[in-house]
What we know:
- By secondary structure, the chain is mostly beta strands.
- Strands 12, 13, 14, 16, 18, 19, 20 and 22 form an eight-stranded mixed β-sheet that branches.
- The longest helix is centred in the N-terminal third of the chain and has 8 residues, at 4-11.
- Copper (II) ion (CU) is lined by residues 375, 428, 430, 433, 438.
Amino acid sequence: MLPLGWLWYGSLLPDEYDMAQMGHADWGGGPRGVHAAMAGGHHGTAVSELIADPERTPDVRETLTVRDDGRQITVNGSTPGPTIRAHQGDLVEVTLVNDNLDDGTTLHWHGVDVPNAVDGVAGVTQDAVMPGEEHVYRFVAEDAGSYWYHSHQVSHEQVQRGLLGALVVEPTEDGESTDVDETFLIHRYGGSGSLNGVEGFSEVDAEPGDTVRLRLVNTDNGLATVWLPGATFRVLAVDGTDVNQPGELTDTAIPLPAGGRVDIGFTVPDDGVRVEFSGGPSLGIAAGPADARTSPPDEVLDLLTYGEPEPAPFDVEHPDRRFEYAIDRKPGFLDGRPGMWWTVNGGIFPDVPMYMVSEGDVVVFEITNDSGDAHPMHLHGHHALVLSRDGVPATGSPWWVDSLEVAVGERYEVAVLADNPGVWMDHCHNLPHAAEGLVAHLMYDGVSSSYVVGGEHGNHPE
Ligand code: C2O
Ligand code: CU
């Protein structure tokens, strides 16, 4: 039995530390490579070198200026900030300007498999951008779909207060064109839920007969539920990836994890369509507000069986590594603070695994949750293919996620192709949970970090 004082002292985080040296290397049963950071010094490829072609001229250029107006954090004067629109294959260049955020700030491109150096995680892939400073992000928008951007510096505060916006990547050749294509961010700024910052009822301009694509982005900390009373619709895409042959749905609730996106498609009937959201807001498409809100249907969409299967693009039967990401909770100290803290594989942060991979590996994660609370798990820089839930194999369309709701007692197996070298966060997107230590990292062997958490920039990604 260790004396309590020792446990407290042992939990204190240094004033600055290299994230890549935290935790313990977990090679997932595969061959051990060189853990550059732990080998000491900065050999191997530095995170800061993992960038898009610096010679290429940008196709889309934006400047995003963030400002704390005392009440909210705005991006170019509003929250949500502007929707950035690009076409697949475009080089996107965004300049972040910090007007007056004293803690500093960053931009993370949620769901976009960007080069590691522009992942926007303070202390891991860059230093926080201080007031009066700017920072340039450059990446190729390789995959069409619905994404979003948000701060990854003191993110549990800055995101909740409004430092966020949408990113839409349109396919190069659109198959059938849609009459109406609108994006809505679901967020709680204070009390009730809002759509693009508007509480209560919002309206979409459309005519009966129009085809509609709604891109719904849950920027909130909890699971959102979406339903369309009486209407027939399809779920066209999940977390930016198209569903293969999505079937028609009616009276079915759509669960949308924190950080996740769904694109919903339908043709507007004569009496319009209404969309309702947990937390209060609703949307009318060629339809007025509902006289009364309905409750969500009992039937809940299950992406494990929705749509039609297709072969996986890599060999999921013979993974190179298998990792466990077991979430639980136990009493202890987090950075000297006593409490009941989240654990990963039994340890309180930073006593958590550093999942080590080599480029080209196929890895399977088994995620379990015995913590008594749900966790929307988000891996940066990669998409994961859901293989099974509670031992039941996925039989629908390939279900690709970057934000996966893991309910209490659930067990998911997901497969990831390690094709994007770097140091990548793998954390809960209920952002206060991440600040409470529900964070681990996926790290490529031979990569070394270029930044420290804490330090003179006060980098605090969570
Ligand atoms: Cu949406 Cu680590 O973030
Ligand atoms: Cu959580």
